[in-house]
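Record Bifunctional transcriptional activator/DNA repair enzyme AdaA, 284 aa.
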Amino acid sequence: MPLICEPKHEDIPSIETYNIGENTYEQLVGSEQIPALRNNNIIFTGTSIASDEFSFVRLKPDLSQILITVKGQGEVYTEDGWQPLPEGHAYITPRDIMHAYRGVSRKMWTVCWVTYHDPKDIVPTVSLDIPTITQANPKTLYAAITGLNEEYRSKADPHKLEIWSNLVHDYVSTILESWRIPDRLWYIWDHVNRNLNKKWCIQSLAKYGHISPEYLRVLCRKHHNTSPMNYVAYLRMQHAANLLKRTNLKLEAIAITIGYDNAFSFSRAFKRIMGYSPMAYRSL
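=>
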């Protein structure tokens, strides 16, 4: 999956949006109601029968999520723009990266979903680079989420609630298994994200992960489809994009924050990776 591409749609989500819609029926539970959910860092899980008013945009979420279409079809935002999410497909979204989804037609869109809030010092449950669409059988996860909701609204037996909570997480883990980034690689990128202004090279990256530069190249090619230094540039531009949208910092200040010597070199790199100049992106 290429990380560097020019956006194909002008309809780029830019405003934080949380709209369930008057005609949407939603059933959910959270960790405040069911403490057992915290064992797996789940903060909310539920099902939604969504109308075309159903719309969510999270620009820099501190949570990760998996959302699966059970019936009907909605739209979700990926690096290639808005894409359909038909029945039997999941939209997997990591923390800190913008994601969006919405109902699109007069037909109702049935989804089930699980939201995670992992501590910052552990490998997140969803350890992906970008929002991703993949095939997934919704039946078992939908059944587990429904069972959890029904138990909570009937007898609310703590032991049974814990069993249902673990089932929900187990079914999510099965779906995510083939998408997981190795722990060692995740720790490298987590450290880079905290030190984007550092002058990184492949040797310093490999040293931090206690692996050889060549093995780091292999891991990056396998899991990111790019080289280690290209991925560092991608992380820098993701942070720069967030600063452009959420602050009034000048380009020179942003450049220094993410490890570039001046605004000119930063602007060239930003346009190459993001498809827009920094000022054009800020004005979207």
